[in-house]
Amino acid sequence: MGEVNRARIAVRVQRAEIANSTNRHELAERYGVLADALEAYAEAAERSGAPLPYRYRDEMRLSRAMSEGPGSRNS
């Protein structure tokens, strides 16, 4: 859970900066790190038999989508 919290903080810090093309790329990378941390947490929860709250599943999905950035959608 520590990795998830650190990744969430990194996203919040990056979002607080004024947006430009470089920052958008960095923000997408930080969302990717957050998605990876959430996925690792979900895998650990599954191995231990603990239920994963819907909130975490939703956050994983949204973070992964944000990490792909604009223009990379598969429509």
Structure write-up:
With 75 residues, this protein is an all-alpha fold. It has one domain. The chain contains three helices and no strands. α1 packs antiparallel against α2. It is elongated, with a radius of gyration of 13 Å.
Which secondary structure elements does this structure contain, and how are they paired or packed?
Elements (H helix, E strand, L loop, with lengths): L1 H15 L4 H28 L5 H15 L7
Helix pairs in contact: 1-2, 2-3
Percent in strands? under 5%
Give the N-terminus to C-terminus distance in angstroms.
33 Å
Total individual domains = 1
Mean pLDDT score? 90
Q: Gyration radius, to the nearest Å?
A: 13 Å
Task: Label the structural class.
Answer: mainly alpha
Order of helices and strands: HHH
Tell me the overall shape. Answer: elongated
Number of helices: 3
